[in-house]
Specification:
Layout (H helix, E strand, L loop, with lengths): L2 H16 L6 H14 L4 H13 L3 H14 L6 H11 L3 H14 L4 H13 L3 H14 L5 H13 L3 H15 L3 H13 L3 H14 L4 H13 L3 H16 L3 H4 L2 H16 L1
Helix pairs in contact: 1-7, 1-9, 2-3, 3-4, 3-5, 4-5, 5-6, 5-7, 6-7, 7-8, 8-9, 9-10, 9-11, 10-11, 11-12, 12-13, 13-14, 14-16
């Protein structure tokens, strides 16, 4: 994977972490405006409405509310984070990074600011900075999400440090348990550097834990074939076929399972 593709993958993953739902924004804006009418001197209400305007991509209105909140209370908690999100979404990552750093100086364990700082580092091509920010976000989070570990691993991999990337995923597995998202990412990293035995060991661990084994056994066959071990690959493909045959008809006849069956038949035919 090229560095540009890695950067795109990191930005997308981080956007998913930091994304907000856009449903009901108009109703929320109306409610926020009513609250401000009742308490026009409350800086926090302008901050809340500014965030809604930002999510609605109404930049002038978001900017006006942020300035009003700042005028009312320059030390308002969350103000720098709100400015950072505003500038990030408005296409000014460097200005956003300045505010994210200010937020982190005031609140070093702010998970939102740490994730945002990582996103900005990716946008600016600073994968080392992204990895460091994500490490801090993981340490700060009461319950870190699997995505934090995955995106940190990708940032480290983009720097060429696959050992550290795999280690980051193993940290996630130790903290969160045997989650497929982390295991699959580690398998792909191992395969990317030709670590077939390491990848197979991770696949075997997943097979041992999984209730459904057919797709994992097929993946095992793919890896064995890539590793130049056709006899072992054949055994894995046959095992996948047997696991597929044991499924109940309603599961075996899904499109995904029918496609898997065709793929296994083709692989065995070519061996």
């Amino acid at each position: 994977m090229t560095r540009s593709l890695v950067r795109i993958a990191l930005v997308v993953a981080l956007a998913c972490l930091a994304g907000h739902a856009h449903e009901g924004l108009h109703a929320k804006l109306a409610k926020a405006t009513e609250a401000i009418a009742d308490a026009p001197g409350a800086a926090s209400l302008y901050l809340k409405r500014a965030d809604l305007h930002r999510r609605h991509r109404d930049w002038p209105a978001a900017y006006a509310d942020l300035r009003r909140a700042e005028d009312l209370d320059v030390a308002l908690e969350g103000l720098d984070l709100a400015w950072a999100r505003y500038f990030r979404d408005n296409g000014e990552p460097r200005r956003a990074a300045v505010h994210a750093e200010r937020e982190l100086r005031a609140r070093p364990r702010s998970e939102g600011a740490l994730v945002l700082r990582a996103e900005l580092a990716v946008e600016l091509g600073d994968h080392a900075g992204a990895a460091a920010a994500l490490a801090r976000a993981i340490a700060a989070a009461p319950q870190p999400t699997p995505e934090l570990f995955v995106v940190r691993a990708r940032a480290l991999a983009s720097l060429g440090d696959v050992d550290a990337a795999v280690g980051a995923l193993d940290d996630g597995l130790a903290a969160l348990g045997p989650l497929p998202a982390l295991q699959n990412e580690a398998i792909e990293l191992e395969l990317g550097r030709g670590g077939y035995d390491a990848a197979l060991a991770r696949i075997d661990a997943r097979v041992a834990q999984a209730a459904r084994k057919e797709s994992l056994l097929a993946r095992r066959g793919d890896v064995l074939l890539a590793a130049g071990r056709p006899d072992a690959a054949r055994e894995a493909f046959l095992a996948a076929q047997a696991a597929l045959a044991e499924l109940k008809p309603r599961r075996r006849t899904t499109r995904a399972m029918q496609e898997l069956d065709l793929r296994l038949r083709a692989a065995l035919r070519d061996l």
